Amino acid sequence: MAGFFDKIKEKISSLTEEEDGKFLAGVKKRAAALNKHIVLPEGEDPRAVKAASEAAKQKIAKITLLGSRDEIEKANPGVDLTGVNIVDPAKSEKRAEYAALLYALRKAKGMSEEEADKLSYDNTYFGVLMVKAGDADGLVSGACHSTANTLRPGLQIVKAAPGVPLVSSCFLMVAPPEGNQYCEDGVFIYSDCGLNENPTSEQLSDIAIISAKTAKTIAGIEPRVAMLSFSTKGSAKHADIDKVTAALTLAKEKAPDLNIDGELQLDAAIVPTVAKSKAPASKVAGHANVLIFPDLDAGNIGYKLTERLGGFQAIGPVCQGFAKPINDLSRGCKWQDIVATIAITALQTQM
């Protein structure tokens, strides 16, 4: 059985542009039409370099790769970087301007001019400052840097969008090439699987609403949102269930037109026969495509089980709620995942 799933993963990992499948091909086509500019700070990582090459070749977006050109070309002799803009922050004429911008943004928080100047040499800070200054439309990082190292500059510089109370994350879980009987649209949105550890009911409601927007804008599907729990419609009693039902009430108040229901167990959310038994009156149960997990434990475990045992491709974590798109990769990502995230980042500019 392990060999069977290994073959599925191998197939997904070796997808060419023509073999992307309907969903990813559509995402890339829509991204290419926008002609956005995405910056990749991790020029030291061969996966990011390969992704930059492929994204430029496929014209998914304009690409800037940060790092020393000599070092990047020496470390990646077989990669064609035609069309990729390579910028070394240490030698950039923009660096001093970005340092001044960082100081202006952070001096009230105690940052000195010297600290701002030092941070402007850092690839990630430099890339986020490019986005803040309007010199790039979005950033993708995290292949070889921690989530904190990627998101801290984003939260300090770009910050959350007006009216968005928190930044969250989601994964786009793309069904394997042969399809999946419970994935009607070819993709699920899983949230939050990478950022908020134990969200409150208020935060869960906000995560549900913005995840539905991601489903519509990025995945191109009509959201059917399930608030997941270990209980369905009162089948158990616990404070954790109360948190989910309270989140459902808040989400309905904030977004009355949203197609959302809960609390639902996973099988009741996506399996029609189970839904008929456990939640027969629900318009979401049995057909959910946006799954909201009650905490980070459940979300992280859930997406990895779906990826490893179900043969789905996990694209993300995709960050939701920044004023301009900043996306954090999994450190176990492949270059194909980075290319897909570049396309998603371009589409997020429309949110």
What is this structure's SSE topology?
Elements: H1 2-13, H2 22-34, E1 37-40, H3 46-57, E2 62-66, H4 69-75, E3 84-87, H5 95-106, H6 113-119, H7 123-133, E4 138-141, H8 147-158, E5 168-174, E6 187-191, H9 201-219, E7 225-228, H10 239-254, E8 260-264, H11 266-270, H12 272-278, E9 290-292, H13 296-310, E10 313-320, E11 326-328, H14 335-348
Parallel strand pairs: 1-2, 1-4, 2-3, 4-11, 6-9, 7-8, 7-9
Antiparallel strand pairs: 5-6, 5-10
Helix pairs in contact: 2-14, 3-14, 5-6, 5-7, 7-8, 9-10
Concise summary:
The protein has 2 domains: 2-159 and 322-348, Rossmann fold (3-Layer(aba) Sandwich); 168-310, 3-Layer(aba) Sandwich (Rossmann fold), CATH 3.40.50.
Explained architecture:
The protein folds into 2 domains: 2-159 and 322-348, 3-Layer(aba) Sandwich (Rossmann fold), CATH 3.40.50; 168-310, Rossmann fold. Helix content is 46%, strand content 15%. It has 14 helices and 11 strands. Strand 7, helix 10 and strand 8 form a beta-alpha-beta unit. Helix 5 (95-106) crosses helix 6, helix 5 crosses helix 7 (123-133) and helix 7 runs parallel beside helix 8 (147-158). The relative contact order is 0.16.
